Amino acid sequence: MQKRLAFKMKLYAGKAEEYKIRHDEIWPELAILLKQYAISDYFIFLDEETNTLFASYLINNEGGLKGLSEEPLMKKWWHYMQDIMETNEDASPISIPLKHLFYLE
């Protein structure tokens, strides 16, 4: 069963354009890796007033995400992005899960 997950992250001021460029040019091998982890329908929005990113995607196996964080390519992407957004010590983005409250089909 698919489940939608959502979270927020934070960009550094003045980095929105660079963030968009990097995602417009997402590494093809990273897109393949995300799909291998059954991630689809992935989108990211920006609140320009606060530099807060809102992201959401569908996943088939939420438990399988733990393995994604161990993938060398994922870690490489995090290091590539850490100069433009708030990150943890391991370079992963500081990601705050959001609680699902409503859905209209």
Automatic annotation (TrEMBL):
Keyword Cytoplasm: yes
Gene Ontology terms: cellular component: cytoplasm
GO MF annotation terms: L-rhamnose mutarotase activity
Domain of life: Bacteria
Any single GO BP term: rhamnose catabolic process
Entry-linked Pfam families: rhaM (PF05336)
InterPro entries hit by this protein: Dimeric_a/b-barrel, L-rhamnose_mutarotase, Rham/fucose_mutarotase
Key words, A-Z: Carbohydrate metabolism, Cytoplasm, Isomerase, Rhamnose metabolism
Enzyme class: isomerase
Enzyme Commission code(s) on record: 5.1.3.32
Membrane-spanning intervals of the chain: none
Record NCBIfam families: YiiL_rotase
Xref: HAMAP family: L_rham_rotase
The protein, known as: L-rhamnose mutarotase
Record organism: Arachidicoccus soli
Gene from which the chain derives: rhaM
